[in-house]
Write a structure and sequence with these properties.
This is CC033 protein. It is found in: Membrane. One of its GO terms (cellular component) is membrane. InterPro entries: C3orf33-like, SNase_OB-fold_sf. It is a single-pass membrane protein. The protein has one domain: Beta Barrel (OB fold (Dihydrolipoamide Acetyltransferase, E2P)). With about 190 residues, the chain is an alpha+beta fold. The chain is built from seven helices and eight strands. α4 runs parallel beside α5. A five-stranded mixed β-barrel has the order 1-2-3-6-5. The protein has a two-stranded antiparallel ribbon with strand order 4-8.
Length: about 190
């Protein structure tokens, strides 16, 4: 029922047990998502607690994802202001939380933003900070992220997009020494 306003407020046991928390996403920044934690509400107690709760936002990073330039723009477009997200705690680094972030899309559909970014080709799979390499959860999540990245690679999406045949030929011709020499002669 406690509202967390800083990553350091969250007990170590929560991170070790990979607890899922709920929050409202306020901003998407270069550092990560700024999320306001929504504590579990108990009708009478919650009304009393709200008076003393401080305000603050948690910095949530997408664990195992290295964003490409288009990734942040996609996140800003995908996450509406004050949209509710679920974030599973995987680790804490300074004042930031490494998390799996899930967004509900309708009643029965939800997407993991970490996987979706990789599936769209808007980032690369990276090491999941905060989890031990020998843990079962680390390898389970890392495998999911690599599969999502492989889908983008196979479909040539995002950063994995390849030039068309005509573009490759045009680039080779324009960069050839003969064409460069011809351009120099014409410019004199």
């Amino acid at each position: 029922t406690t509202k967390f306003t800083s990553a350091l407020d969250i007990p170590v046991e929560f991170i070790q047990k990979n607890v899922k928390l709920r929050g409202k996403c306020h901003h998407v920044t270069e550092k990560g998502l700024e999320v306001e934690h929504i504590p579990i509400s108990i009708p009478l107690i919650t009304a009393i607690q709200r008076k003393w709760q401080s305000k603050g936002l948690l910095l949530v990073r997408l664990a195992g994802v290295e964003l490409a330039p288009g990734g942040m723009a996609w996140l800003q477009q995908e996450l509406k202001p004050k949209q509710t997200v679920w974030f599973q705690l995987l680790g804490r680094e300074d004042s930031a939380l490494e998390c799996l972030v899930v967004v509900n899309k309708g009643r029965f559909l939800s997407i993991c933003l970490n996987e979706e970014i990789l599936r769209q080709g808007l980032g690369r799979a990276a090491r999941i900070e905060g989890l031990h390499h020998d843990s079962r959860l680390y390898w389970k999540l890392h495998k999911r992220l690599l599969r999502a990245e492989l889908k983008a690679l196979k479909k040539h999406k995002g950063i994995w997009e390849e030039e068309s045949y005509s573009e490759r030929v045009r680039n080779r011709v324009s960069n050839s020494k003969f064409v460069q020499t011809l351009k120099q002669c014409v410019s004199w």
